[in-house]
Design a protein that fits this description.
The structure is a homodimer of 354-residue chains. The first copy, chain A, is α+β, with helices and mostly antiparallel strands and 354 residues long. The N terminus of chain A is likely disordered. In chain A, α2 crosses α4. In chain A, strands 3-4-6-8-7-12-13-11-10-9 form a ten-stranded antiparallel β-sheet. In chain A, strands 1-2-14 form a three-stranded mixed β-sheet. In chain A, a hairpin with a 4-residue loop joins β1 and β2. The first copy, chain A, folds into two domains: 191 residues, 2-Layer Sandwich (HIT family, subunit A); 113 residues, HIT family, subunit A, CATH 3.30.428. β1 of chain A pairs antiparallel with β5 of chain B, so a sheet runs across the interface. The complex binds adenosine-5'-diphosphate-glucose (2 copies). Chains A, B: This is Galactose-1-phosphate uridyl transferase N-terminal domain-containing protein.
């Protein structure tokens, strides 16, 4: 996502020193993906004028926003709210998506066993929206750590509800912030999709982590070498710039203790993660000038038994959208990152939050 | 790529009728990828103002463009030009990329055999630019079919040169047009990268086509059912909207006779393909209002022996950038397409080119 043309605000100015390092190709062993690191790319010129900022033209008129408190009747049906017994003073709401990509009202279907050139499933699935705050003006990073933790607990609760549907194999939690990160709504929200299949990136990740476990006897994320890649640490989590980050300034927040499923998180860990997530978003906001961003929770298929997979370790990935992608990435599935993650980690480690 | 917010110019207005069809999940058997088709998504509102067009602020000052004729000295070194003996009247030039993602001047390296958490290759590889026309004002779709064919023959010639390097495993040919398709330069050009590894999307495609061949005894693209998906046909090629198109209005141009490597193309076929490619770009320009777009050539690893793989069939993929992507796609590798390809094919089939 994101417009093209040179490599967005913040990168070249932030990263003066390492632009003369030579290119390197690194493998992300968690996702089995190659990434090309090329600091020289950050210098290339653009003859398109500079691209849009995070929120170029946000809707100034809160009175038209269906996610705002008092506009509940303009939304698709509510699933639950926190606090659950609140009336006009809710903190967050989980609602159905009014324009869902998948539909909860049609029958799940299974694939024909024989090969066919046109394999098709019905569009059964769940697509929900998490309204993270009652007020239009508050972003996730403005909320206090416990409130951010409550957003995470809402994901947990909804995943546990979706697990009761045998046909749902995976739940993808994600957030889009800013137009070039794909957002169509400015009011702070995230989304959850319950899918009738395990998506390809998830299978690839689990296969890769399993292969690593079979070779080394260890979970790749339990063993992760933070060192130069460390950004911050809380009681139960670390945040790092991963060794083979796909995107510039990409951040992973990883639980310190092995856990294969995000929904195993408890209240205390959720508040702790809430604090670290807030800190990362604040640092990005300050250092990268309020960039558009996405975050995604990478967990395990929800029906997996035993519930603890020894090789699978969930994490939360945050991606500021600073550069666009082009035909190379669409064609190869391989990304070009102009910023070495050890440099990104240093910058983010040293941001001063007052 | 592309800004977010609703689903870009052209989609909802073009596709009135099928918006009430229910969602479907289809598998692309060539690439082993699931795609969610959800016409309802095209209707969702956006509170960001409408996004930028293809060339929002192109450089109006041609005298500053290094790709223009007369500015050859502002470019990285030339590799060859057509006609090869031309001086000031060249038709196209293949040059080195001045800000290459990979470098031809460093030693190739190979991976350590033992598992390591930080696998790294040196950034050896080739990154070239194909300047498609001497004049700033001409886009690829403005050139005559033989000139477009010459651009394709330049790709072929350069691939054949790169094949002589044992360390180069795959050559990705791609084009970015327009800022939200990633382009940083407006002058009509494409790019070629010679890679020291076979990229993940290529391995996945070849594995999937091989599996299909092993099961059915047939090449999936030789057997492709065009019917409702057909857009146009030339002597040696067909253009279709693929059954499980990842993107709205995505087009594949496929050689009618089995061929595993793009660089097997000859002069006659190149001119024929040039005509069909030009036609597809013209149709997109007219019907989708000059959208930003990418195209990619999907071929086989260049060192593969025997040279004809019975299951691998090259094709050219054209992707207009009408919608952005968000966290769902980054997280899952699975895309949501609001336009059924049979509807896109009908629209593109019926565009009248005068
Ligand atoms: N009144 C209402 N009640 C309930 N729900 C309402 C509503 N009004 C709007 N909505 C829903 O709210 C959601 C807001 O989501 P985002 O802003 O994160 O991005 P969106 O899903 O539009 O698309 C981005 O994310 C998806 C998934 O990554 C990408 O496919 C896409 O290209 C990108 O633009 C939309 O899905 C919309 O359907
Ligand atoms: N004087 C000169 N001589 C020679 N070469 C020159 C030059 N001036 C500029 N160049 C090169 O010309 C190329 C123009 O390429 P494009 O406009 O297609 O997109 P770019 O490669 O910048 O990035 C897009 O494509 C890549 C690959 O898909 C994505 O990684 C990226 O995010 C996206 O913006 C650039 O690569 C640039 O380095």
């Amino acid at each position: 996502a994101g417009g093209g043309g040179g490599d967005g605000a913040g990168i070249s100015t932030t990263m003066g020193s390492s632009e003369n390092r030579s290119a390197e190709i690194r493998k992300d062993t968690v996702n089995n993906r190659w990434v090309i690191f090329s600091p020289a790319r950050a210098r290339r010129p653009s003859d398109f004028k500079s691209k849009s900022k995070s929120n170029p033209n946000p809707n100034p008129n809160q009175s038209e926003c269906p996610f705002c408190i008092g506009h509940e009747h303009e939304c698709a049906p509510e699933i639950f709210r926190f606090p659950s017994d609140s009336t006009s003073n809710w903190k967050l709401r989980v609602i159905q998506n009014l324009y869902p990509a998948l539909s909860r009202d049609i029958q799940p279907s299974s694939l024909p066993q024989n090969p066919t050139p046109t394999p098709t499933l019905s569009g059964f699935g769940f697509h929900d929206v998490v309204i993270e705050s009652p007020l239009h003006s508050l972003h996730l990073s403005d909320l206090n750590p416990v409130h951010v933790g409550d957003v995470l607990l809402a994901y947990k609760k909804r995943i546990e509800q979706l697990r009761s549907h045998d046909s749902i194999k995976y739940v993808q939690v994600f957030k889009n912030h800013g137009a070039s990160a794909g957002a169509s709504m400015t009011h702070s929200h995230s989304q959850m999709m319950g899918l009738p299949f395990v998506p390809p990136a998830v299978s690839a990740r689990l296969d890769s982590m399993k292969e690593n476990f079979d070779q080394t006897g260890k979970c790749s994320l339990c063993e992760i070498q933070s060192n130069n890649f460390l950004i911050d640490q809380s009681t139960h989590f670390i945040s790092i710039a991963p060794f083979a980050a796909t995107f510039p300034f990409e951040i992973w927040i990883i639980p310190l203790c092995h856990s294969s499923h995000f929904h195993e998180i408890d209240g205390e860990k959720a508040a702790d993660l809430g604090g670290l997530l807030k800190l990362m978003l604040r640092k990005m906001y300050l250092q990268l000038n309020n960039p558009p961003f996405n975050f995604m929770i990478h967990t395990s298929p929800i029906q997996s038994t035993p519930s603890q997979l020894p090789y699978a370790h969930w994490y939360l990935q945050i991606v500021p959208q600073l550069t666009g992608v082009g035909g190379f990435e669409i064609g190869t599935g391989c990304y070009i990152n102009p910023v070495f993650p050890e440099d990104a980690a240093k910058v983010l480690r040293e941001v001063c939050i007052t």
